[in-house]
Design brief:
The protein is of the alpha/beta class. The chain contains 11 helices and 10 strands. Helix 3 crosses helix 4 and helix 3 runs parallel beside helix 5. Bound molecules: adenosine-5'-diphosphate (ADP) and magnesium ion. Magnesium ion binds next to helix 1.
């Protein structure tokens, strides 16, 4: 295996009140991957993200980026924050400027970039998230989904190589979720490594190249979602199986093997396509 882009080595962390949040946790994220981080509430997903961009520092163990331990000096942190962008679960925790353009320019300005470069990055980020029309709007007048997009733009303006999104689908309607997926698809195609914390098994199964499953601050499993999300221990930690995997398995029990197609369906859409392709084949066989 090529060396990990980001890695945790035996990381433990306790919040100041003593609550254990990460417990001897080791895991890896591959460069260029779409990685889903799964785990029940309180499993440590948010704490993990706060470590990956240096907001929190391990009580024990270490975090490596490209094989090199994180540098917690001011300069090191500045570099890390522009390399690893974090989009918080709650946009109100992230946005603080009066208007959209100002908020997005905060990050690149803090990086000490020239004004012209800042302006061009802000415009490019507004385009990337489809928010150009709202550039001069007050942040507090935006809808939840629009605020989420401004948060993503603010991070993109730093030109990160890794984007962490903490439960980005929570609170978005189906249409907005679709739009967000399209935005993330374009960013991934442009080479950005995307790591999403979620407890949505169906989403992780359909979207992730890799999945990381956490339980009580520890790594329970890591690997291809189509493999690890079917494991019994993972199912009991996450309280279920992905819907598409379950249907595929049930169909197999009655003799219908969807794996006969070129690939295993991973989303509802692919499942329906596989079933209707099979139905067409069966009909054709009957008429012959
Ligand atoms: N600010 C905090 N102070 C004390 N304990 C916290 C704090 N944030 C999270 N925790 C605790 O740390 C553990 C991991 O939480 P978190 O990382 O938020 O999990 P997740 O994002 O998977 O729901 C939980 O037991 C939680 O109660
Ligand atoms: Mg969380």
């Amino acid at each position: 295996m090529t060396s990990a882009f980001l890695a945790l080595e035996n990381v433990s962390y306790r919040y100041p009140d003593g609550s254990p949040a990460l417990d001897n946790c080791s895991l890896k994220v591959r460069r260029g991957s779409r990685t889903a981080v799964l785990g029940a509430n309180g499993a440590g997903k948010t704490t993990l993200f706060l470590h990956l961009n240096g907001i929190l520092r391990p009580s024990a163990g270490q975090i490596l980026c490209d094989g090199i331990p994180l540098d917690y000096s001011r300069v090191g942190m500045r570099k890390l924050r522009s390399l690893v962008g974090l989009v918080f679960q709650n946009p109100d925790a992230q946005l603080f400027s009066a208007n959209v353009r100002e908020d997005i320019s905060f990050g690149p300005m803090n990086m000490g970039l020239e004004e012209r470069e800042v302006r061009s990055r802000v415009e490019e980020s507004l385009v990337a998230v489809g928010m150009t029309r709202y550039a001069d709007r007050p942040v507090h007048n935006l809808s939840f989904g629009q605020k989420k997009r401004v948060c993503i733009a603010g991070v993109l303006a730093m030109h990160p190589e890794i984007l962490l999104l903490d439960e980005p689908m929570a609170g978005l309607d189906a249409m907005m979720q679709g739009e967000l997926m399209a935005i993330l698809g374009r960013l991934h195609a442009a080479g950005i490594t995307i790591i999403i914390a979620t407890h949505d098994l169906d989403f992780a199964y359909g979207w992730g190249d890799d999945a990381i499953v956490m339980e009580a601050g520890q790594l329970l499993a890591e690997g291809a979602p189509t493999e690890i999300l079917l494991r019994d221990d993972v199912q009991s930690a996450l309280g279920g199986t992905p819907f598409v995997a379950e249907i595929t398995r049930q169909l197999l029990l009655i003799g219908i093997d969807l794996r006969g197609n070129e690939y295993l369906p991973r989303s509802r859409r692919e499942l329906l396509l596989a079933i209707s392709a099979l139905a067409t084949d069966t009909k054709q066989e009957r008429t012959l």
